[in-house]
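Field reference: sequence -> structure
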Amino acid sequence: MPHSWTFFRSGGFDQVALRSSEDLRHLKHLDQKLWAALSCPVKGLEFDERTLALIDKDGDGRVRVNELLDAVAWADARLTDLGLVLAGEESLAVAAIRDGDDEGRALRACVARVLEKAGRAGADRVSLADIVAAAGNLTQTEFNGDGIVPAESVADPVVRQVALDIIATTGGALDRNGQQGVSAELLAAFWTEAEAFAAWAGRAETEPDLFPLGDATPAAAAAMAAVKAKVEDYFARCRLAAYDARAEAALNRREEDFLAMAAHDLTVEADEIRAFPLALIGADRPLPLDSGINPAWTDAIAAFVHAAVEPLVGARSALSSGEWSAIRGRLEPHRAWQGAKAGARVEGLGLARVREILAGPGRDGLTALIEADKAVAPEFAALEPLEKLVRLNRDLFRLLHNFVNFADFYSPDRLAVFQAGTLYIDSRACELCVRVDDAGKHAALAGLAKTYLAYCDCTRRGSADKMTICVAITNGDSDNLMVGRNGVFYDRKGQDWDATITKVVESPISVRQAFWSPYKKLIRFVEEMIAKRASGADDASHAKLQGAATTAVTAAETGKPPPKPKFEVGTVAALGVGIGAIGTIIGGAITGFVNLGWWMPLGALGILLGISGPSMVIAALKLRIRNLGPILDANGWAVNGRVRINIPFGAKLTELAVLPAGSVRSLSDPYADKRSHWKLWLVLAAILALAGWLGWDRIRHGQWYWDPRADGSYRWQEPVPAAPSATAAPVAVAPH
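Structure field:
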């Protein structure tokens, strides 16, 4: 039978409820289209990054559906009851670990050793703190399972010295305890080089031709090697000159070559000079040793004569081709032997020490210790799986409530893993705060959430820590929210941060704000117009004063009185017409409103709805489509559903300031604005004048007249028009 799922509706979409181990076990059969998210980042969440890293098998920095399913399946295989993860306990019962296979038995053995190293041998529960403490202790033991033996852990002084020599020549390998040690690979490589070096160096003892000059042979061979190419070049050129005399001029450098070189500043070591022949070329001419040598090669030839020529063929002023060949023949075996040197890394130990190491017990002793260290590797290899199991027991269910569904996000008493804390700003507390790395990049996608977003830079006094958060403001209004506004952000650890708004993405916050929005815009418009008019009038006043002063000065200088201002009749008439038109419009509107009688309140409501209604409708439509998805997607999530933030839920995410229940409120304010009754009397006078004017207008037009009653009193009565006669001719009525 297929598994029976239970769904709950929250945020405008159906989410699967996870209530039992069977629900977790059958997650692999749940259609991924019904998952709340398909991936989440490993970093930047209010969740243990180590747990997420252990679940992230491919190490790409994101936890995906298949990796989460693998974690559930692995926990199911290692626990006697998968339902244990529903509790999310910090510690795990030892008896809850399956031990029916090799991996399970290794886990049990690892638990026993962990508890022993943690000083809780025989305990029935193991915690993450036990594992961390034991891991530190286990790495300091003689054998810690990494196959590396530190020299300090070797008891035999002879073997320890061999280990130190190996570390000195190879660099060693880093042990889990942080010390340098010897591994099987390093031991084998060292032994190979030591044997090769001993065999190479031993040839000097069995082949006397390798050292014709004894200890002076290496210096002689080096001196010969320094000039060999140049001497060979010289004798080759001399043989060519002997072959054909016409080649002699070409084999020596031409005068033009010297002229070109002479045009520059010269040094004896210049490359151009070194490229010239070693000496003047002539048919079968010997190499001069005391004079006539290319000045760039004088020192090298002198060293060669001192180290090789004089000891091997005696002192002389020139060297023939045959003598050169004899010297080369005596020193070439040594050069070839040097070129075949093996085991250069162990050469610094010296041949005697290398032979001592090869003949001693170092190799066997270190091999035994390395094998003993490897023998405990399974226990150490189980440390990470044990850590993973304890972490999944604690964290897996919470992760599922932020991945398969968003139960934590819609919970009244829990925060989701992507909620970084609470921002207090402008008399409100905002709970939907997420960490972001790049506010500009994040806002490009998060703006599609149709939510008012504020990006804040957060810093801590006395600390170099900084972070940027994106805050969704879902209740109240935006009148006092602007770039530069400061607030206080409390992270999930309770630490407070100074928060400053650096960027806002505007969108409707509430229907209430939309209701007052047209009036606020009108007030701002009027304020701006008044400010502009006042500024213009002030400029005009200054201009008139300056003009009047100029006219007065001119009149005083000329003796003529200033001209009288002209009375513009047309301007006055135009102003009168305009004022009359405005009064007619206002009067007509007021008359129509008064004619509503008892329906005037509904008329007033209709006027308000006509002004505020469109903005309220637009705001309500946008508030209905507020969506969490783009905010998280911009942070690397793959949100799979339309996670709505409707008006009631938005009021929960952003709470406004309210007085506590039972508070006593005093309305006495010593600094309140002083009330002035003249404003009230002015309004009442205006109402009475308007009422009188409307009544007189109706009487004047015959719409109302006095109607006597039977008791002698009178009342206002509106005349009933007589029915028109079919034969009566139309009568022209003079206008009033």
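Note: Residues 146-375 form one domain.
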